[in-house]
Amino acid sequence: MSSGARPGAEAAVRERIPDVETLTRRLGEADYLADEGLATALFFAIGLPQPLLLEGEAGVGKTEAAKALATLLDTPLIRVQCYEGIDASEVLYEWNYPRQLLRIRLAETDRGGLAEEQLFGDDYLIRRPLLRAIEHPGPRPAVLLIDELDRADDDFEAFLLELLAEASLTIPELGTITASHPPIVILTSNRTRDLHDALKRRCLYHWIDYPSAEREAEIVRRRVPGAPAELAADVAAAVRNLRREEIQKAPGIAEAIDWVAALRLLGVQRLDADAAGRTLGAVLKYREDQDLVRERGLEYLAVGDGD
Amino acid sequence: MATEPRGRLAPAEVPALAAAFGRAVHDAGLPCSPERSVRFAQALCLAQPRTRDRLYWTARTVFVSSREHLTEFDRVFAMVFDGLVDPSGPRGDRTAQASADAERRQRASQTGAPALDGSQPEPDRPSRGVSSGGGVPDPDAPERETAVPVAGWDERLADNDFGALSPEELEELARLMRTLEVATPLRRTRRARRHRHGERLDVRATLRHSRRTGGDPVRRVRRRRRLERRSLVVLCDISGSMEPYARAFLQFLHGAVVAADAEAFVFATRLTRLTLALRGAQPQVAISRAADATPDWSGGTRIGLALQHFNDRYGRRGMARGAVVVIVSDGWERGDPELVRREMERLRRLAYRVVWVNPRKAARDFVPRAGGMVAALPSCDAFVGGNTLSALAEVIDEIGARR
After folding, report:
1. Is the distance from CB of B325 to CB of B348 less than 8 angstroms?
2. What is residue B120's three-state secondary structure?
3. Chain B nearest CA to A265, separation (Å)
4. d(CA A150, CA B382)
5. DSSP string across B140-188
């Protein structure tokens, strides 16, 4: 249980990512620009290894971080999207009952007999994400993303905790399956409720803030191929201004990317009041927010370097 | 691993450093177990931080597990690593903290903040002369009574305005409040439980059972959607005009948090979340802890701003969705009533029901004239007084009411 028992990252992973600088560079190559804080946190998630809990406003790139990590490690990303009422049979495994029954019926008709092992073999096991993450054959561990954990019930949280600590699970009919390459675990939460302290204690934690305007412009440019650099900078500055406003749903990086994509589709080179007005729906998703901004005058969005 | 000799931590220093810093974090009141210090030591060995920045992020990733702790953590980090304080020195911070607390308390009592820990005398108030003892219900009686709460209560206490109670009566009141049962209405969840008379057939379970009977589904398994209580959020005004009621309603908040797992907030000029402070402690301890966590006792009222803050930070994220939201306030708004109106509309769209408790409502010829109150009323599902114990029963009825 204690973190002291962990042997550290596998050699194959250490080789790929010897230090934080390498990780930052490789994340950049996977088109994910991480700042010092996030890179350090991810480095420890891989290196200690320890589950990493990422929190931050919606759309700051929590999920993307896990995707980029999987890309640069060249391993599959296995994702569990949490929701209210999610339970073990939806994330671990389930037997394929209809198929088993059919097999039984078939055995009855051709009188061939049927060994129990046949019924509880691989063919009849439906593998859900957590089992797949634990069974992952390597050569490097899979990245397991548990998205929006705050949406799941708290008993699911406890179940998950136990599973992650052991990195093994028992199927009564098959026996215990222990991970040969324990997955790298990233959890995300939007803070709709407090996660349990026991979970937090076992996880590393990082709060992702909005990036600086320059970094955001760079992120946007990478995500929208062919977007003019000036347009990306304009949008990054405008979005930054919007976040300072009394707005119900401040735009995240995802919205900035959508916005630039929308503007590019219209063939806009620089952000002006007219273009902003036509594409406002890509950034502001509440009528009240749009009204507020239109009242203030769209020009101030177009000012670009508003600092 | 790349080995670079310059500026490396000597391996022997690492455990001591990690332990000392862990202790400093712990002393500052952040949750920190030795386990974290161990993890910090591992992280230090792994990352070999050579810059202050890298060291900062290393420590922060390991020690912080909530955004709320960041400020305090930054302070401790600066204190220890920017050389302001020797980490191996005595745990001297305690006394400094204590004297600061004492100073703050003194300041608070000068500005007329209510004495919430019960240790300081209340300002003189004409006592209504209820001797504690006579007619008081047996404290050993079952704590949760579902009957109409007024039964068996001291009648004078039941109908006295909270604002006119003496400190002893308040103590008594705290005990009586524990007999109130706060419960929100039920709602169906997505999740189903196995149930003998459920409305849905559990196909998988039925098939699983049918293997015992040679593949014929003899026994049918049914499921029924699970019922769950809606969540409860209480926002309590503690500004100057609400001061006479503050202590009584804080008791109520505590009761709601403990009994109904409610989320509790107080506001005057700003919004403070008290759920964690009120949870899991003796009422007196919890309430003095809550008082310490609240910076703006008896300040001016900014209902609109507080509601906006609540909606943005908590409500929209899910805390208020489908919940019963109770607001305790007299509606005196110093800011713009327009903001109150707008935020109340937002809140109403999120919540299942919004109940407004105004202790001034009981006054004869009460007409809602306060700007904030007028603006808020159209968005309230219920408007009740709640200024006496028996009136509080009405509040509880409203909390449990269906839409």
Report:
1. no
2. coil
3. 32
4. 31
5. TS-S---S-TTTTS-HHHHHS-GGG--HHHHHHHHHHHTT----PPEEE
Count Cα neighbours of B34 within 13 Å in the Cβ-side half-sphere: 4
What residues does each domain of chain B span? 13-91, 106-185+230-403, 188-229
Q: To the nearest 5 percent, what fractions of chain A are helix, strand and coil?
A: 50, 15, 35
Pairing of strands B324-328, A125-127: unpaired
Inspect the interface and report whether the beta carbons of B54 and A18 lie closer than 8 Å: no
Cα(A113)–Cα(A20) distance, rounded to whole angstroms?
59
In sequence order, the 6+-apart residues with CB closer than 8 A to the CB of A218 are A33, A232
The hierarchical CATH code for the domain A3-85+128-208 is 3.40.50.300
- Exposed/middle/buried for B103, CB within 10 Å: 0-12, 13-18, 19+? exposed
H or E stretch covering B338 = helix B337-350
CA distances from B167 to B11, B216, B392 (A): 59, 71, 19
Nearest to B232 by CA among B205, B257, B199, B198: B257
Half-sphere exposure of B225 (CA within 13 A, CB side): 8
Q: How far apart are CA B287 and CA B255, in angstroms?
A: 11
Residue B144: what pLDDT? Answer: 36
Phi-psi region of B214 (alpha: psi -120 to 50; beta: other; left: phi over 0): left
Paired residues of B264 in beta bridges: B234
Please state at what angle helix A36-47 crosses helix B52-63, rounded to 10 degrees. Answer: 60
Of all residues in chain B, the one with the smallest CA distance to A39 is B57
Strand order in the sheet with B186-194: B186-194, B222-229, B200-201
pLDDT in tens, B260-288: 888 999 988 888 888 888 886 677 777 77
Residue located via tokens 């290393």: B58
- Dihedral, CA of residue B384, residue B389, residue B394 and residue B397, to nearest 10: 130
Q: Does domain B106-185+230-403 have CATH number 3.40.50.410?
A: yes
State whether residue B31 sits within 8 Å of chain A by CB.
yes
Looking at this protein, which amino acid is placed at residue A292?
L
The pLDDT tens digits for B12-54 are 778 888 888 888 888 887 888 888 888 888 888 888 888 888 8
C-alpha neighbours within 13 Å on the C-beta side of residue B292: 16
Cβ-based contacts of A4 with chain B (< 8 Å): 38, 42
Which tokens belong to A173? 């009919």
**What confidence score (pLDDT) does residue B156 get?**
55
Under 8 Å CB-to-CB from B275, ≥6 apart: which residues? B257, B262, B263, B264, B265
Q: A–B: how many Cβ contacts below 8 A?
A: 116
Alpha helices in chain A (DSSP H): 11-16, 20-29, 36-47, 62-73, 88-91, 97-110, 116-119, 129-135, 154-166, 197-202, 213-223, 229-244, 253-265, 273-279, 287-296, 299-302
Contact B61 A53 (CB under 8 A): no
Choose the closest CB to B2 out of A19, A153, A197: A19
Which residues, other chains included, contact B105 with Cβ-Cβ below 8 Å and sequence gap of 6+? none
